[in-house]
Specification:
binds 1,4-dihydronicotinamide adenine dinucleotide; 7-stranded parallel beta sheet; alpha/beta
């Protein structure tokens, strides 16, 4: 079975190649290429049975139509989220799509808390200041999280891990989810408006869907407490960026931590330090002293990379053997 691996980075190759050495995967032939999967690169998959793609790639109608013409029968998403894949189009051509539903949810939740702590206590600035022989504390004031209220939006795998971390910090934890997670006996479920009104920290962990698109907008921002900390490690589209900028300018937020943001595609995972950015979203967000932005790296731990590699190759093997591995998103 031939698989074309799009958007390969050195760290992808390291973990996948280690697994591909194993006897179990000897019938899988994987070629790693640097370009991302887009309508312009999809034709490279000619002659392959499967493609392997990631969260930042364009698997819309056009790409899938080209993949079908190339003879591709399987799309292996090496990530959990699949809002960038046109599943209906894949179904239309009988192309199977599989993903990695869970690969160390704690890794993402720990990054969410890292963003909270950094944005709140300004450790990123303190690091630079001290290196410059500047030991002044001006501008570094934070708030203590102990005894405050954390509001978790979406308590699936990652949201539950974040709820446990916040609980460990001595926070009161409230949550909003249509399907309460019964394992979280210390969490009080409330409606979204109550969560917005009561939380000192709001952390987003629900998937991007038609319903959740722009769930954080000026109307919902106005319902939040003044001085709230907002963190998004889920998907950029959950927040309407222009409204967030307005809220930041109106001093609504004590701090904002973003691992994901609108318009991140085409930018994340690339070194653009020598280039002129073609859009202003990140530039505007970075201009605020209380905003911390990282480049969609919540997943990026050794544990997660190992799990992503193994599950992706198991998904390929199941397809090759005509079995259902349980991670299929299409029939
Ligand atoms: P999950 O499927 O285990 O949990 C999602 C939860 O959100 C479910 O309990 C669901 O009922 C709830 N939900 C759905 N729509 C909602 C809405 N409109 N309002 C409130 N709750 C809603 O997913 P998991 O594994 O926890 O991942 C969550 C998201 O995290 C993914 O969809 C993905 O977008 C993002 N993610 C980000 C990563 C990163 O590197 N920053 C890595 C992996 C995932």
């Amino acid at each position: 079975m031939k698989i074309l691996f799009f958007g390969a980075k050195s760290y992808d190759e390291k973990y996948f190649k280690a697994d591909l050495e194993k006897e179990r995967y000897k019938e899988l032939e994987v070629n790693f290429i640097e370009p991302d999967l887009t309508p312009n690169t999809a034709m490279l998959a000619h002659g392959y049975d499967a493609v392997c793609a990631f969260v930042n790639m364009d698997l819309g109608k056009k790409t899938i139509e080209i993949l079908n013409r190339c003879g591709v029968r399987l799309i292996l998403m090496r990530c959990a989220g699949y809002n960038n894949v046109d599943l209906e189009e894949a179904k239309k051509y009988g192309i199977q799509v599989a993903h990695v539903p869970s690969y160390s949810p704690e890794s993402v939740a720990e990054h969410a808390m890292a963003l909270v702590l950094t944005a709140n206590r300004h450790t990123h600035k303190a690091y630079i200041k001290v290196r410059e022989n500047n030991y002044s504390l001006v501008g570094l004031m934070g708030v203590s999280l102990y005894g405050r209220t954390a509001g978790i939006v979406g308590t699936g795998r990652i949201g539950a891990a974040m709820a446990r971390i916040c609980h460990g910090f001595g926070m009161n934890v409230i949550a909003y989810d249509m399907y309460p997670n019964k394992s979280l006996d210390f969490v009080k479920y409330v409606d979204l408006d109550t969560l917005l009104a009561q939380s000192d920290l709001i952390s987003l962990h629900c998937p991007l869907t038609e319903e959740s698109y722009h769930m954080i907008n000026i109307e919902t921002i106005n319902k939040m407490k003044d001085g709230v900390i907002l963190v998004n490690t889920s998907r950029g589209g959950l927040i309407k960026t222009n409204d967030l900028v307005q809220g930041i300018r109106e001093n609504k937020f004590f701090a904002v931590g973003l691992d994901v943001y609108e318009e991140e595609n085409g930018q994340v995972y690339e070194d653009k330090s020598d280039e002129i950015l073609q859009h202003s979203t990140v530039a505007r967000l970075l201009s605020f002293p209380n905003v911390m932005v990282t480049s969609h790296q919540g997943f990026f731990t050794e544990e997660a990379m190992q799990a992503i590699s193994e599950t992706t190759l198991e998904n390929a093997l199941a397809f090759k053997n005509g079995e259902r591995g349980g991670n299929e998103l299409t029939d």
